[in-house]
Amino acid sequence: MVNWKDPEVEARLGVILTELVFFVVGLYGWEYFRSFQVEWALIRFRLSFRWPLIPYVVGRLSLLASVIIFITVSDSGFVWRSLWPNCQRRQFAGNVAVGCASTNLMIRTWLIWRDSRFVLCLLSLVSVVHWTILMIGWHPSLIDAYMTSGGCDVTYVDTPKALTVYLYTMFYDMLVLVLTTIGLSRKRSSCTLWRRLYRQGIAYFAVTFLANIMPLV
Fold first, then answer.
1. Where are the domains of the chain?
2. Taking the model in full, what pTM does it have?
3. Which ranges does the record mark as transmembrane (predicted)?
4. Which of 79, 124, 141, 170 is the most buried (most CB within 10 A)?
């Protein structure tokens, strides 16, 4: 079996993690600027501002900030006094990105069920609880870490609160996906639109499910 405490193994994993982080930064940075049309249209006043754009724009910026901060945290040249604030900022930005992503998915479901007050109240309640959990979940007491030659090592995580964040996010996204599927089935719409929304919902849930299940394992 692999000895994960072996310094040589840790050094190799550190190199792999660093390369993976830079790959993710490059990939998301390319995607961000490739799809910058909405932000550019808002800046040039070519697109009128609407409230559904808030989670879209904020979510993209938060994820970009989280990935960039992750690079600084992974830099072995950082010392503890600069590491800990960056860990806090990264966790906060990441949680905001998660919340905005789920909210973006929920907005479409909201529009589909806009004639049902019960479903709208349910979505509002679930969304408020989700954001509350995410804002509590980034609190510094949830995680502790220290610096090694390879970057930042996590030494303690508040497991119950971390599980709450991951599991509730999975529940929220699943609920939105189910309501979207049921809502589209109730109404007459083009088959192309139905398939597109359904595939997007399935794809998003699959990605978020894998992203949330890996830390739990």
1. 50-214
2. 0.74
3. 12-33, 53-72, 118-138, 165-185, 197-216
4. 170
Mean pLDDT of 166-191: 79
Q: In whole angstroms, what separates CA 87 from the centre of its chain?
A: 16
Structure token pair of residue 84:
């800990």
Nearest Cα neighbor of 130 from 189, 171, 72, 79 is 171
Query: Which amino acid is residue 18, in one-letter code?
Result: T
Residue 150 token pair: 């390879």
Whether 144 and 159 have beta carbons less than 8 Å apart is answered as no
For 104, the token pair is: 């973006």
Plot region of 79 (φ>0 → left; ψ -120 to 50 → alpha; else → beta) = beta
pLDDT on residue 78: 43
Q: Which residues contact 93 (CB under 8 A, 6 or more apart)?
A: 62, 63, 65, 66, 69
Q: What string of DSSP letters covers 66-84?
A: HHHHHHHHH-TT--HHHHH
- Give the HSE-up count for residue 82: Cα atoms under 13 Å, Cβ half-sphere: 12
Position 118 pLDDT exceeds 60: yes
pLDDT at residue number 63: 86
The model's pLDDT over 33-70, given as tens digits with 9 standing for 90+, comes to 888 888 888 888 888 888 888 999 999 999 888 878 77
List the one residue out of 59, 48, 160 whose CA is nearest residue 104.
Answer: 59
